[in-house]
Design brief:
This protein has 95 residues and is of the alpha+beta class. 27% of the residues lie in helices and 35% in strands. Strands 2-3-1-4 form a four-stranded antiparallel beta sheet. The protein is globular.
Length: 95
């Protein structure tokens, strides 16, 4: 399993526009083969911060999605991009 997670920063007044522009991408990603979950969400505390979270069955599924994603061109500059891919060897319920 792979998790792609982290955050980006955009201008405070364009954060919601950026998140909303990715709605169709999220819907399509969740239908993609091998996708377990995807979300792009606004941080409730920091006005310009946006979180990215993706969980995939395999790296091949990630690559297949990336090859046909067609992300929206928002024209909104992303700063402080801190998103990483993590290969998960084992998972269990935390509670």
């Amino acid at each position: 399993m792979w998790i792609v997670a982290g955050h980006v920063t955009v201008d405070d007044d364009r954060r919601d526009e950026f998140v909303n522009a990715h709605r169709d991408l999220i819907v399509r990603a969740r239908r993609a083969p091998g996708c377990l979950d995807v979300t792009i969400t606004a941080d409730p505390v920091e006005p310009g911060r946006i979180y990215n979270y993706e969980r995939w069955e395999s790296w091949e599924a990630v690559e297949a999605w990336r090859a046909q994603v067609h992300a929206p061109d928002t024209g909104i500059e992303m700063r402080d991009v801190e998103v990483e891919a993590y290969e998960i060897a084992r998972a269990r319920p935390p509670f």
